[in-house]
From TrEMBL:
PANTHER family: ELECTRON TRANSPORT PROTIN SCO1/SENC FAMILY MEMBER (PTHR12151), LINALOOL DEHYDRATASE_ISOMERASE DOMAIN-CONTAINING PROTEIN (PTHR12151:SF25). This is Protein SCO1/2. Disulfide bonds join C76-C80. It comes from Jannaschia seohaensis. It comes from the Bacteria.
Length: 198
């Protein structure tokens, strides 16, 4: 597989880019922890943001039950809506109760993705995936603490899109990363990774 294939998901203009540096860094940390027989990799820093219902949310949301954590944006034409659809489909087909596993969509475009906008985007697709947004700097600090790559890319006419890391983090009940589900992972493989933390 060549470097371009590893770096870019070519979806009509390459809207979302897999950041090789961020992805490799996360995988290297996870592999080193596995070698040391540690159960998971702790990423993330304390945060105080807002969910799509307008309620405060902190890192405590990722404690006490396993979670799926995805960083994306609502104006994404393919990767993000596909990922939301996939998460909802996998969990529904596995008959996973919402209280048994958290599912979160953190925007990396908080300037456009307000709580209200996230709610109108997510709820028609899933009632179990909770959107997270907030003040831009606070959101971006939170994403960086998870080693998530994102970058604004200008488009013609003054618009912009966001390049971003496109894997789902699989967290255990302590909020540690125990696996990744890359974009395009086969359903059976994704479900096996989810089942492993339940």
């Amino acid at each position: 597989m060549d470097r371009r294939t590893l770096l870019t998901l070519g979806l009509g203009g390459g809207v979302a880019v897999l950041a090789l540096g961020a992805g490799v860094a996360v995988r290297q940390v996870m592999e080193s922890r596995r070698a040391a027989r540690v159960t998971g990799t702790k990423l993330g820093a304390p945060f105080r943001l807002t969910d799509h219902n307008g309620q405060p949310i902190t890192e405590a949301a990722f404690q006490g039950r396993p979670s799926l954590l995805f960083f994306g944006f609502t104006h994404c034409p393919e990767i993000c809506p596909t990922t939301v659809y996939d998460m909802e489909t996998w969990l529904s087909e596995m008959d996973v109760a919402p209280e048994a596993l958290g599912a979160y969509f953190v925007t990396i475009d908080p300037e456009r993705d307000t709580s209200e906008f996230l709610k109108s985007y997510l709820e028609p697709q899933s009632h179990r995936i909770l959107g997270i947004t907030g003040e831009p700097e606070a959101v971006w600090d939170m994403a960086k603490s998870w080693r998530v790559y994102f970058q604004k890319r200008p488009l013609d006419g003054g618009d912009y899109t966001m390049d971003h890391y496109a894997s789902i983090f699989v967290l255990n009940a302590r909020g540690e990363v125990v696996d990744l589900i890359p974009y395009g992972t086969a359903a059976d493989e994704a479900k096996a990774k989810i089942a492993a933390v339940l």
